[in-house]
């Protein structure tokens, strides 16, 4: 409705006449994620080496690019998928559906039926209604019951939305056995987990659940250790060998000597360190005595894990292809969009050169996981994050 006295005049304006050649959207080489596939292969080998006998199901959500999937397929990986889209993607690279586990606890009946029709036979759930859906649409499949974890020690906790307590898990396992399913237990200790002991408590719970299943004359077919193995961010983490030693020890203590199939679902560890994200500095300015740096990528362009400053990426500033030398100072770092939520770091201020100016480049290291997949389709008209291999 128009305000009194206001009339629309747009229709009286003459149509604009264009004489100049149409302008082009300026070409931009950034933001760009470069993934080093040799590093993906070596990370896979490193995790295999420290977790002997554990099948690695790559959590496809971390980086679903075909080049990453093909690299991991060549290395011998199996797959943790979260949706029919990921099932199709993976089966295009590795046609054996027995290599897939459907790790999402929240599934439409139609999606369960689709997965089953494509040959997937391992599904994760954490409540009775999902078990009903599964018995109906994926009869006889293996059911992994996800138990909750505290998420302590993780930079990106996954405990609130998923998993059930021990008593509920016992009920679900016993009911699943009664319905003719093979059963297992699964958990996720939280992503970017910095405490190597985080797997101990859920493995102790798993052992008690196993005892209950055995009393019913059955056994666990699989124990799934989830993901959580860390990337190299600004916050130090123990070496991967320390994770391996501690977890192997906890498995032997709680589940040995007669082990079920043990699998893990690493995402971040396999791909994060392989990725370097190049961004352009759009603006450097002072606001109330603080230096603000705006990049051409932010929360909506793929850096969603900076939410609440959870993941603190390492950074290097470049000019004309060389690192910028000289004194550095803390900055507030923000993305390029017209949304005030598009703030990367305001509490933990990254150190960047005092001489930094627009047109310079900032490389964000260890960004091969959870970046391209999170990138919006075009918020504010910015294109989704591109990815190339090296
Ligand atoms: C079910 C499930 N498995 C595995 C992963 C991979 O975890 P990470 O990247 O910490 O290894 C995730 C991550 O969100 C997940 O949700």
From TrEMBL:
<comment type="similarity">
    <text>Belongs to the Orn/Lys/Arg decarboxylase class-II family.</text>
</comment>
<dbReference type="InterPro" id="IPR022653">
    <property type="entry name" value="De-COase2_pyr-phos_BS"/>
</dbReference>
<dbReference type="InterPro" id="IPR002433">
    <property type="entry name" value="Orn_de-COase"/>
</dbReference>
<keyword id="KW-0663">Pyridoxal phosphate</keyword>
<dbReference type="InterPro" id="IPR029066">
    <property type="entry name" value="PLP-binding_barrel"/>
</dbReference>
<dbReference type="GO" id="GO:0004586">
    <property type="term" value="F:ornithine decarboxylase activity"/>
</dbReference>
<dbReference type="InterPro" id="IPR000183">
    <property type="entry name" value="Orn/DAP/Arg_de-COase"/>
</dbReference>
<dbReference type="InterPro" id="IPR009006">
    <property type="entry name" value="Ala_racemase/Decarboxylase_C"/>
</dbReference>
<dbReference type="Pfam" id="PF02784">
    <property type="entry name" value="Orn_Arg_deC_N"/>
</dbReference>
<dbReference type="InterPro" id="IPR022644">
    <property type="entry name" value="De-COase2_N"/>
</dbReference>
<keyword id="KW-0456">Lyase</keyword>
<comment type="pathway">
    <text>Amine and polyamine biosynthesis; putrescine biosynthesis via L-ornithine pathway; putrescine from L-ornithine: step 1/1.</text>
</comment>
<keyword id="KW-0210">Decarboxylase</keyword>
<protein>
    <recommendedName>
        <fullName>ornithine decarboxylase</fullName>
        <ecNumber>4.1.1.17</ecNumber>
    </recommendedName>
</protein>
<feature type="domain" description="Orn/DAP/Arg decarboxylase 2 N-terminal">
    <location>
        <begin position="38"/>
        <end position="272"/>
    </location>
</feature>
